[in-house]
TrEMBL record:
Reaction it catalyzes: a 2'-deoxyadenosine in DNA + S-adenosyl-L-methionine = an N(6)-methyl-2'-deoxyadenosine in DNA + S-adenosyl-L-homocysteine + H(+)
Coiled coil: none
GO MF: site-specific DNA-methyltransferase (adenine-specific) activity
Keyword set, alphabetical order: Methyltransferase, Transferase
Record's protein name: site-specific DNA-methyltransferase (adenine-specific)
EC number: 2.1.1.72
SUPFAM superfamilies for the chain: S-adenosyl-L-methionine-dependent methyltransferases
Domain DUF7814: 3-57
UniProt record, GO biological process: methylation
Keyword Transferase: yes
Organism: Microcystis aeruginosa PCC 7806SL
MmeI-like DNA-methyltransferase domain location: 123-321
Enzyme category, top tier: transferase
Length: 374
């Protein structure tokens, strides 16, 4: 690759000193580096509207990569931002209003109605955090990211966006624009994190806490493609990383293990019926549901690889035991096992008869014994 030269693409983004498109040929490796250098991976078009937006790359590029890698093979499609924003805005706002009506016994119709009735901000924040959103074909995670942004914006609109101690970010306004989460102060200026600024450091911590809480407890996804699952997990990490803050020791806050909510599987089929009674199964388990939840929480906040690996083993053990007991408790599975055992016994008795064996050998040949075709 170092020795090979490539003709410069006619529609290239590379420019010469006069601002004209480059022509001719370049060394392949140099071409690659100059091409990547022409883009900005750490900026947003909203920071400088005059800058060429085509040269700005943000986290959503992972979705485009996902579509190019998987799309031609299995028909995967990257849902445009306009669609995911609309879906989340229309559905999540209604779901939150419905959730408050169920919990509080209200009859609110809009978020404005909720805003007028909310008195306990901590309780309201907890009610919103009880929402569960699952994308059964999660792909690159675009819908979940849009859902995360919408929930944060709704909390801000209801004035229940809180830090870890319950203090409200009442002087800050959060909104979703172009599928991005934007934070404004009371003067209308766009928020930018500065570690040495106490107020901005506090806001960054609060946003990190809120995002982590929502990602860990509200957002779930499944996809049959393991590559898609990995991209989705990475994309959620990036969203959390946007609000990572510096601790007192000068290091960035450690990102939690948020990958446990995104699983690889087939959403169209299930090993167990949705209405299966799990009460008897739970009674047979050596581990309780509470122990499982504690293991998951410990896994999310694991401080080192050893602790993470230990929790992974424990969680796998609990799941394996639950699945085994559920299979035993399923009448259909028990009946299938009994039928299979009966067929095996009948086959064994037939093989025990010399006349049957001789007949089969004459018909199929001696090799049929080793192939199991008797």
């Amino acid at each position: 690759m170092r020795e090979r030269t490539l003709p410069i693409f006619a529609g290239t983004v590379l420019k010469d000193n006069q601002g004209n498109k480059r022509v001719g040929e370049l060394n392949a490796l140099a071409y690659l580096f100059e091409f990547l250098d022409a883009y900005k991976f750490d900026r947003d078009e909203l920071e400088n509207p005059q800058e060429d937006s085509e040269k700005l790359i943000n986290a959503s590029v992972l979705g485009l990569i996902f579509e190019k890698i998987n799309g031609y093979k299995d028909g995967s499609f990257y849902t445009p931002s306009l669609i995911t924003m609309y879906m989340c805005r229309e559905t999540i706002r209604r779901a939150i209003v419905q959730k408050f009506n169920e919990v509080k016994g209200w009859n609110c119709q809009t978020l404005d109605d909720l805003y007028e009735r909310i008195e306990d901000k901590k309780e309201a924040n907890t009610i919103i955090n009880s929402l569960k959103i699952c994308d059964p074909a999660v792909g690159s995670g675009h819908f979940l990211v849009s859902a995360l942004n919408e929930i944060i914006a709704i909390k801000s609109e209801l004035r229940v966006l809180l830090d870890s101690s319950g203090k409200s970010l009442k002087d800050y306004r959060v909104e979703v624009r172009n599928d991005k989460l934007l934070v404004y102060d009371d003067e209308g200026s766009l928020f930018a994190y500065h570690p040495n600024n106490k107020e901005k450091h506090w806001v960054q911590q609060a946003l990190f806490h809120e995002k982590q809480t929502i990602i860990e407890g509200c957002l779930f996804g499944v996809d049959i493609n393991p590559n898609s699952v990995t991209i989705c997990q990475l994309r959620l990490w990036i969203e959390l990383l946007k609000n990572a803050y510096y601790r007192e020791d000068g290091n960035l806050e450690t990102l939690p293990n948020i990958d446990i909510n995104i699983k690889c599987g087939n959403s169209l089929i299930s090993r167990f019926a949705l209405d299966v009674d799990v009460k008897q199964v739970l009674q047979k388990q050596k581990f309780s549901i509470e122990e499982y939840r504690n293991a998951v929480q410990t896994y999310r906040n694991a401080e080192n690889k050893e602790q993470k690996r230990e929790m992974e083993t424990l969680i796998a053990k609990i799941k394996a035991g639950f699945s085994a007991n559920l299979l035993i408790s399923d009448p259909k599975k028990v009946k299938l096992y009994q039928i299979s055992k009966s067929m095996t016994d009948i086959h064994a008795r037939m093989l025990a008869k010399p006349a049957f064996v001789v007949t089969r050998i004459k018909k199929n040949g001696i090799t049929s014994i080793t192939r199991g075709t008797l």
